[in-house]
Design goal:
Blueprint (H helix, E strand, L loop, with lengths): L1 E2 L18 E3 L2 E3 L6 H23 L5 H22 L7 H7 L3 H19 L15 E2 L5 H10 L15 H14 L13 E2 L4
Antiparallel strand pairs: 1-3, 2-3, 4-5
Helix pairs in contact: 4-6, 5-6
């Protein structure tokens, strides 16, 4: 910016491309062009915005709904693949009746029992904090399904955690097999009977 009495040197002196400035009340203001890269960005942004709007309305560009539908489809494919590799196991009384007489499942259950259950029920099932598992008395029912369900949901008010998130249905069935095998054995130290006599198979 310059005045008539205080002229500013022109940075474009000698350049044939100088843009003449404007003069107002003796004040001269030069109108310099924008940098080329700035102008290019402006035009590119405008063209991109125009193409994007056209694309959204013609299906050339995916909308949010399109992306959501695609993501849900991919999720469904992953879910189906997981289910095919990990089929849902249904445990019922018939299944457990076969499991409790399988020596391999009893052995698998013993390993699981030793790792988690022995701390409360004693390694031989005689009972410590938890009840004695070797007698015919049961607090929450003594059928195979009763035992399976107690292992699944636990007894939080008595300090027994639910094991559904830790052990699979097959592993819980193996635990039932081992617990059932303890009935009638003689532990080193048997805790007093608790609950009611269960006379079923």
């Amino acid at each position: 910016m310059s005045t008539d009495n205080n002229p500013m040197s022109d940075p474009h002196d000698g350049s044939p491309d100088i843009i003449e400035g404007h003069r107002y009340d003796g004040i001269q203001e030069y109108d310099n062009p924008m940098p080329g890269w700035w102008t290019a960005i402006f035009w590119v942004t405008g063209i991109f915005g125009l193409l994007y709007i056209i694309g959204l309305n013609t299906g050339w560009v995916n909308t949010y709904e399109d992306d959501l539908e695609s993501s849900l489809q991919q999720l469904e494919e992953v879910r189906q693949e997981f289910q095919s590799q990990n089929p849902v196991v249904t445990i019922d009384s018939t299944t457990l009746a076969a499991v409790v007489s399988d020596p391999a499942r009893i052995a698998a259950g013993m390993e699981l029992f030793s790792g988690q259950c022995a701390a409360c029920h004693a390694p031989d099932g005689g009972g410590l904090i938890g009840p004695n598992l070797t007698d015919e008395f049961w607090i929450h029912g003594g059928s195979n399904m009763d035992i399976f369900e107690i292992i699944r949901v636990g007894v939080p008010e008595k300090g027994m955690a639910p094991w559904e998130a830790i052990y699979t249905a097959e592993e819980r069935a193996s635990l039932v097999a081992y617990v059932r095998s303890l009935v009638g054995t003689t532990p080193a130290t048997a805790k007093e009977p608790q609950g009611e006599v269960y006379e079923g198979a």
